[in-house]
Design a protein that fits this description.
Chains A, B: This is Catabolite control protein A. Chains A, B: GO terms for molecular function: DNA-binding transcription factor activity; transcription cis-regulatory region binding. Two copies of one chain form a homodimer. By secondary structure, chain A is α/β, with parallel strands linked by helices. Helices cover 44% and strands 15% of the residues of chain A. Chain A contains twelve helices and twelve strands. The first copy, chain A, has a six-stranded parallel beta sheet with strand order 2-1-3-4-5-11, sandwiched between helices. In chain A, strand 1, helix 5 and strand 2 form a beta-alpha-beta unit. The relative contact order of chain A is 0.13. Chain A binds a DNA duplex through helix 2 and helix 4.
DNA sequence: CTGTTAGCGCGTTCAC
DNA sequence: GTGAACGCGCTAACAG
């Protein structure tokens, strides 16, 4: 391994001078800088960031800890985070918890252990609150993105689950739908809880009755039982049967549509489907689903800005910023007015 | 920050004993181990891996360096890598180069700098060969996945581009297609080069003529000019106009289909489309495209196995393993026999 | 403008 | 079975 001592020797200066040249700290004569830089190039020196972290307690490394690397929402978020990080001189690494609280804990240990300067964190579920304590204990700044952990006093970038739900339900309502099934995410995940809450509130607002028989709960990213749920819903007596499905994320929506397909149910002729979050642009061959799209990129971009602000100001000040990003309604082809039939 | 000194004090032992307990190295009495472990729990101690790396020169950290985090091929690969890494006691972090050679270089610096034990590497393009030298110079083991850099003597997990191309072209040929356009990736990316090569060879094999007018080159993951290309192809005189499109990855294929849609060209009635790599399972509402699927998960899983083998044996031995993973042909709805018309 | 010293947190080596 | 001293690569603080 090449160290500053090696280049110091080669350049005939002291290690300290090498350090100064590398970090642009303190004054160094042009002549010496050239000598040192030449030696650095010659030896292809790369600083050892472990050693640097040890003394500096800073790594210029940020970690994005998310729950599903395969979800386009999060990949876009990651792009945003990366862009902002690089703008500000940081590097971003990703850790994928796979919605698994145990993996999450392990990764947090790694993150603390390796000394990331900060974490952009989208918790797996409500049990993640334990992990928050870890961050605090070890004084590593973090920003919550997309998924809140209520009562946690940190900077946050969240979506507006109520507004999004309202946009979707309003649209369905205007299309004449009165029985709208909710296919929700796990009831221990913030966004799922918030969307269910919103679903109920908006129902009240619209004067619709909330029917427990129309509410289901699925995993956010792998559902083998979508078909099962669809069958149950369709087997309800006609006056209770839903005419529309509200899926609480894109992945669930797709699974529902697939299940409907498999059962030869036409969307939107026989049933309408909407969901939170847009589809992968890469795969929306059919710009099919009517959705509310969230500005995923901005979640990452803004979140990283907040994170770095906090790192730099080293301010565990109590002024915590909470940015709420508005969703946008995208009318496409998976919904249809009921009077058309 | 909590260090072994803190727990040493609390447990009334020497720091060295704490270290032994943590690492299960040397003998320690049961009583002391309990005391120490209790102190560790109480103080929520997490080892400082920078310090550990410094002395040990090992971090139990692997890095997956890929070019497009949004491509389902790579996300599946990442899952496989992660699973194997965890099985074997390593953690995996991701770096996304965005097909950008500059970003790639920066990330490699970070990787070397932070002391990852090894890298699973899918190079951005052929210029990445420079970066290979960096890995070698700094003696960090790496395994090439999906994209080869010819003449590089390391372990590799690659797809069979010839076999895949042949499956696809054979199918089209059997359907009666004789003019098959190639919409390829960048001509400095290994898979694109290999697929073009294969495209030509198989054409010869089938007695088809290769026409330069039918070959185009696009970026692998963002193409604004897909429509432009489609128009050019369709504007060819009828006896030169392609009856099928061979896209060299999923993303390109989707862009082509979108462009065809926009121009009101029906797939597969008016033109057939095939591609390398399956679509995101999450988004294939319409299991639409006929493709050759590669076992993406295995690329990561096997690659990580090779990588860790090499790390553990510390063997820069010359016996380099090269695993070739076979693609699988999936007949779906984007291709049609020409005689049907 | 440049060099020396000390210490970051940990594990290896060598004592006891 | 346990502890003390040293060094990993780097930089802050202090000298000169």
């Amino acid at each position: 391994m090449v160290t500053i001592y090696d280049i110091a020797k080669l350049a005939n200066v002291s290690p300290m001078t090498v350090s100064r040249v590398i970090n642009n700290t303190g004054n160094t004569s042009e002549a010496i800088r050239e000598k040192v830089n030449k030696a650095i190039d010659e030896l292809e020196y790369i600083p050892n960031s472990s050693a640097r972290s040890l003394t500096l307690k800073e790594s210029k490394l940020l970690t994005l800890l998310i729950s599903d690397i395969a979800n386009p929402f999060f990949t876009k978020l990651a792009r945003g985070a990366e862009d902002k990080a690089r703008e500000l001189g940081y590097q971003l690494m990703l850790c994928n918890t796979d919605e698994n609280i145990e993996k999450e804990k392990e990764y947090i240990n790694v993150i603390i252990s390796t000394g990331a300067d900060g974490v952009l964190f989208s918790p797996a579920n409500n049990s993640s609150s334990k992990h928050i304590k870890l961050f605090n204990k070890h004084k590593i700044p973090f920003v919550l993105v997309d998924r809140d952990i209520p009562k946690t006093k940190v900077d946050k970038v969240l979506g507006d689950n109520y507004a999004g739900t309202k946009l979707l339900l309003n649209h369905l309502f205007e299309c004449g739908h009165k029985r709208i099934a909710l296919i929700n995410g796990p009831n221990n995940v913030f966004t799922a809880i918030a969307r269910k809450e919103a679903y109920k509130e908006v129902h009240q607002l619209l004067g619709l009755t909330v029917n427990e028989e129309l509410m289901y709960e699925l995993h956010y990213n792998r559902n083998n039982d979508a078909e099962h749920i669809v069958m149950k819903l369709l087997n309800l007596p006609k006056n209770k049967r839903p005419t529309a499905l509200f899926a609480s994320n894109n992945s669930i929506a797709i699974d529902m549509v697939k299940a409907l397909h498999a059962l030869n149910i036409n969307v939107p002729d026989e049933i309408s489907v909407v969901c939170f979050d847009d589809l992968d642009p890469n795969s929306a061959i059919n710009p099919f689903l009517t959705v509310v799209m969230q500005p995923a990129y901005d979640f990452g971009y803004i979140g990283t800005q907040l994170l770095i602000d906090r790192i730099k100001n080293n301010s565990s000040s109590n002024k915590h910023r909470e940015v709420i990003l508005k969703p946008e309604f995208l009318l496409r082809d998976s919904t249809k007015s009921i009077v058309d039939r």
